[in-house]
Design a protein that fits this description.
The chain is of the alpha+beta class. Helices cover about 55% and strands about 10% of the residues. Helix 4 (about 100-125) packs antiparallel against helix 10 (about 265-290) and helix 5 (about 130-145) crosses helix 6.
Length: about 450
């Protein structure tokens, strides 16, 4: 009897979500789109940042349409981060970090992911082009249905159609390589997994020709997903089966990339540069900043006493919100609220959430109920305070806390290490930002304001 059943397209969606970190920002070749994408927004020394680079950084895969649903401030902040990345990577090279054994090790560890990222750019991103008539028709439909502006409707139509087309092409590529996979599972090793018995790291769970999927590979992958070692999932046949198939798909895509000789394409050069830069920046931060930042128990205790509300367990807040599709609209609503306009009235006028008819009221809720960005913003607010727009997968929220019920305070000893990690990260970030400003003063940076408007 087979332990793993066919999971169909569900695993593809989960797998693809992890593939595209390497394809974002800083890669100048790619999708066949409007000429504007190749225009240079900024130069950092000899390095160029194009319209396409910035659009991708803002979440437009392939840069195939303008990022019209974000504000100018957001575009500038994104450009600033791309500039900072180039400066930090250059600084790391000047320090010789690209010659370190640790750099070479991390490069080899991420090599398959690099090749797969280029494969998707070549086989998917370059083939996607939106149909103008389809976009116009969808925008008109959304405009009538959701009663939104022309610009919002157009932005939403482009995004939804692009996501559908990319998903279809991504899935087709994965299905193509899956046909070549012929896994042989070691039923005895799997039984040990599922019964909770110890499985040695080098034991082979499954194999496909000379490609072996070891217990360590499964454990590591589950740990990366769960964030706490993956122990709770090792006895779950469905979870382990999903990971085994995911690892096999990754290997199949890598073989496809080698077969297609993606390393001989211009795209490879661009994506590899971005990949190398990400490793260099990580090394720079670890060696020049994190290693030198120390946080004592005394520092942690001071922070604990200064923000007692952050360590209350069982605390509940009552909040109301206004949910809209675009950052531009969210900022307009926020500005009106800051001028004193009625929250409930604006919720009824703007919010797309069903709570609009009761002024956006969500009632009381504790931690772990709302999506993290919403929760973090809500619990950081004082009673009566209004948040700036908060982005979640649902859209943009403006949140106001109207009541708070205090819970039990968590003992300092239970949060000390987490708090020290947080304080260290905060200090590291502050030091990095200061360092970036110093690098900017020495660098030759040019920004083309006219081209920036086309992003």
């Amino acid at each position: 009897m087979k332990i793993f059943a066919e999971r169909g397209r569900a695993i593809i969606a989960v797998f693809l979500a992890s593939l595209f970190a390497l394809t974002l920002a800083g890669c100048q070749s790619g999708t066949k789109v409007a000429p504007a994408t190749g225009k240079v927004v900024a130069t950092v020394g000899d390095d160029a940042i194009t319209v396409k680079d910035l659009r991708e950084f803002l979440g437009v895969r392939g840069g195939i349409y303008p990022a019209s649903n974000v504000t100018e401030e957001t575009k500038r902040n994104a450009l600033d981060r791309l500039i900072a990345g180039k400066l930090l990577a250059k600084a790391a090279v000047e320090k010789g970090y690209d010659k370190l054994d640790e750099f070479k090790k991390r490069y080899e560890e991420g090599k398959k992911q690099l090749y797969i990222a280029v494969l998707f750019r070549e086989k998917v991103d370059k083939t996607v082009k939106l149909d103008d008539e389809e976009v116009k028709a969808e925008a008109e439909r959304l405009k009538k249905k959701e009663k939104i502006s022309d610009d919002e409707a157009l932005a939403k139509a482009r995004a939804s159609i692009a996501q559908r087309v990319f998903n279809e092409k991504d899935s087709a590529l994965v299905e193509e390589v899956k046909k070549n996979i012929k896994l042989e599972h070691d039923q005895e090793v799997l039984k040990k997994f599922f019964s909770g018995k110890e499985v040695k790291d080098d034991e082979v769970v499954s194999r496909w020709g000379d490609f072996k999927i070891t217990a360590k590979m499964v454990k590591d992958e589950l740990g990366a997903i769960s964030g706490h070692g993956g122990v709770n999932f090792l006895t779950d046949p469905r979870a382990v089966g999903t990971i085994v198939e995911r690892l096999a798909i990754k290997e199949a895509l890598y073989r496809k990339a080698l077969e297609e000789k993606v390393d001989q394409t211009p795209t490879f050069k661009d994506v590899e540069k971005n990949f190398r830069n990400s490793i260099l920046i990580d090394l720079l931060i670890e060696k020049d900043f994190r290693a030198g930042v120390k946080v004592t128990d005394k520092d942690a205790k001071a922070a604990y006493n200064e923000h007692p509300e952050m360590f209350e367990q069982g605390t509940k807040v009552r909040a109301r919100h206004i949910l809209v599709d675009s950052e531009k609209t969210a900022n307009e609503v926020y500005d009106r609220l800051k001028k004193g306009e009625d929250f409930a009235k604006l919720a009824k006028e703007y919010s797309k959430d069903p709570t609009k008819d009761r002024g956006g009221d969500l009632g009381f809720f504790g931690r772990g109920v709302m999506v993290p960005p919403f929760e973090n913003a809500a619990f950081a607010l004082k009673v009566g305070e209004i948040s700036k727009p908060v982005k979640t997968r649902f859209g943009y929220h403006i949140i106001q806390v109207t009541e708070r019920k205090a819970g039990k305070k968590v003992p300092f000893k239970d949060v000390k290490e987490q708090l020290k990690d947080y304080l260290q990260s905060k200090k590291v970030n502050e030091a990095i930002m200061k360092y970036i400003e110093e690098l900017k003063k020495k660098a030759k940076i040019n920004i083309n304001e006219d081209v920036l408007k086309q992003v």
